[in-house]
Amino acid sequence: MLSVDKINVSYGELQVLWDVTLKVNNGEFVAIVGSNGVGKTTLLKTISGLLNPTTGKIELDGEQIDTIPARMILEKGIVLVPEGRLLFPKMSVLENLEMGAYLPESWSKRRETIEDVFALFPRLKERKTQKAGTLSGGEQQMLAIGRALMSHPSLLMLDEPSLGLAPKLVLKTFDIVEKLNEKGITILLVEQNIRLALQHAHRAYVLESGRVVLEGAQKELIDNEHVKKVYLGM
What are the backbone dihedrals phi and psi of residue 144, each rounded to the nearest 5 degrees, phi first? Predict the structure, then answer.
């Protein structure tokens, strides 16, 4: 479904990603894990079209997408839930959801989709007239995911969904993401909580200093000596 082939990405003269290659198959739950500041967010922004690789290419279903605007990438079904959620704090829950129905086709189906989001997140229905900025951290994360679902993504990318959440809410968020995957949405997750990410994802890539240093299936990486020593404290 998604193919990232040897991309290099820079901010001005500062190179952040080096020959990064990864694949995400249709229906998979894939995680990109690593410490803070290794380029995980930059990778998602590049896939989304918010940044452009200096070399390499990105393909979706065999079509190159790194040369087209971010809006067109959204139209093709790639949606990002950004780090920190980035909601519209002075707008209501309902208005934030409507902002997610950016595409004309999504807008025409917005009422039905909002009901689907409310079924997934009943708390949002209870808070639908409340301003997003007054929600708890967990409720804001629900809203950020709900807003992304409004455009009917085929590939949902989540950037650090556990950030700032209490442990119980982190587990609930991961359960919801897993449920979305079971419903047929392909997931690409960026996460610092490597133990939790590896417990839920089918496969994962380990990013260090802007380079993919390891990749493999869930159990393979959990049992990897480098992962156990550096990230799992074992």
Answer: -65, -40
Residue 234: predicted pLDDT = 62
Q: Which two tokens stand for residue 233?
A: 């404290």
The reply to whether CATH 3.40.50.300 applies to domain 1-77+154-234 is yes
State pLDDT tens for residues 101-122. 988 888 999 999 999 999 999 9
Q: How far is 159 from 80, CA to CA, in rounded Å?
A: 8
- Give me 205's structure tokens: 């890539």
Q: What is the pTM of this model?
A: 0.91
How is the chain split into domains, by residue range? 1-77+154-234, 86-152
Q: 193 pLDDT band (50/70/90 cuts)?
A: confident
DSSP string of the chain, one letter each residue? -EEEEEEEEEETTEEEEEEEEEEE-TT-EEEEE--TTSSHHHHHHHHHTSS--SEEEEEETTEE-TTS-HHHHHHTTEEEE-TT----TTSBHHHHHHHH--SHHHHHTHHHHHHHHHHH-HHHHHTTTSBGGGS-HHHHHHHHHHHHHTT--SEEEEE-TTTT--HHHHHHHHHHHHHHHHTT-EEEEEES-HHHHHHH-SEEEEEETTEEEEEEEHHHHHT-HHHHHHTS--
> Does the structure show a pLDDT above 90 at 25?
yes
